[in-house]
Amino acid sequence: MENIKIAVIIPCYNEGLAIAGVVNEFKCVLPQADIFVYDNNSTDDTCKNAKFAGAIVRSEKMQGKGNVVRRMFADIDADVYVMSDGDKTYDIAKTPLLIKTLLDNNLDMVIGARKEVDLSAYRVGHKWGNVMLTKLVQCFFKHKLNDMLSGFRVFSRRFVKTFPAISGGFEIETELTIHTLSTKIPMMEVDTDYFARPEGSVSKLSTFKDGFRILKMIVNLVKDERPLLFFSIISILFFLSSLSLGLPVIVHYFQTGTVPWLPRSVLAMGLMICFGLCLLVGFVLDSQRKSRYEARRFNYLRYNPVQIKQK
To answer: Which among 114, 109, 228, 122 has a CA at the least distance from the CA of 177?
Structure first.
């Protein structure tokens, strides 16, 4: 690893209590790496403590973790990128193992899957929300990941420079994962310990507000990446609704020869038309998705995999 350029990138918002310890740990396990702390409008001593610990400190004024990650990916050039939060909850000592896994297996992303060491590390809502959202993505994208929302990751240069980064907040991890799955980019999980925050440090993740935003991101990405499946599900709902309204009308017509409940009949026909339109939209968007996928793959293949430079 001495012959590759490694950048540690840490998005931060009010992590003054923990950031110096995080920077120092990375300096110990990756002495050759450049450590960047991107401050996101902190009101505490995050910047001062990060600079004192020896990090390169920069700022991103647009609030939200996704906005910070997009800026870091655009600004920094390296062969391998290590992303971590600044709250001292991740097992930084495992970073060399994550990098080795990436290099040995010619991967583009390795996720540090969190295994809680302290019972207080995960808030109950966060833990179950992570499980539910991970399972939801598993249903649509057929993966075997255990921790889709981990912020402890290692990336190759070609991943970072071809990742679109459209999200603005904590849904960035969801976007990273689904982009990898939908573009068929090689990745792997490595189990890492997950610790409780330092005393006095507070999580910025809102269980319900950010959970809803992550769910919304999943729905949008399923619509974009699996449009035929997405609109087929909607069309089935229209079909079943139309059937429940129209079947009694059809039965009555064959029994009496008259069409009763005219508004109900019109509504049933309208729902059947929506059923057909949804299927049509699904097929059209699926064709466009294939074109987008090919463009993404060609862009991805423009970059070489990480290569260890020979002395």
So the answer is: 109
Range in 33-42, 130-139, 226-235 with the lowest mean pLDDT: 130-139
Q: Is 76 left (phi over 0), alpha (psi -120 to 50) or beta?
A: beta
pLDDT at 264: 72
CA quadruple 83, 85, 86, 88: dihedral positive or negative? negative
* Structure-token match 């790496």, residue found: 33
Structure-block tokens of residue 189: 């999980």
Q: CA 70: distance to chain centroid? A: 13
DSSP characters over the chain: -TTS-EEEEEEESS-TTTHHHHHHHHHHH-TTSEEEEEE-S-SSSHHHHHHHHT-EEEE--S-SHHHHHHHHHHH---SEEEE--SSS-B-GGGHHHHHHHHHHTT-SEEEEEEEESSTTSS-HHHHHHHHHHHHHHHHHH----S-TT---EEEEHHHHTT------STTHHHHHHHHHHHTT--EEEEEEEE-PPPTT------HHHHHHHHHHHHHHHHHHHSHHHHHHHHHHHHHHHHHHHHHHHHHHHHHHSS---HHHHHHHHHHHHHHHHHHHHHHHHHHHHHHHHHHHHHHHHTSPPP-PPP-
Residue 308: its pLDDT value, please? 66
Distance CA 295, CA 165 (A): 16
* Maximal CA-CA distance, the chain: 90
Kindly report, residue by residue over 89-115, the tens digit of the pLDDT: 999 999 999 999 999 999 999 999 988
Mean pLDDT of all residues in the chain?
87
Name 55's bridge partners.
none
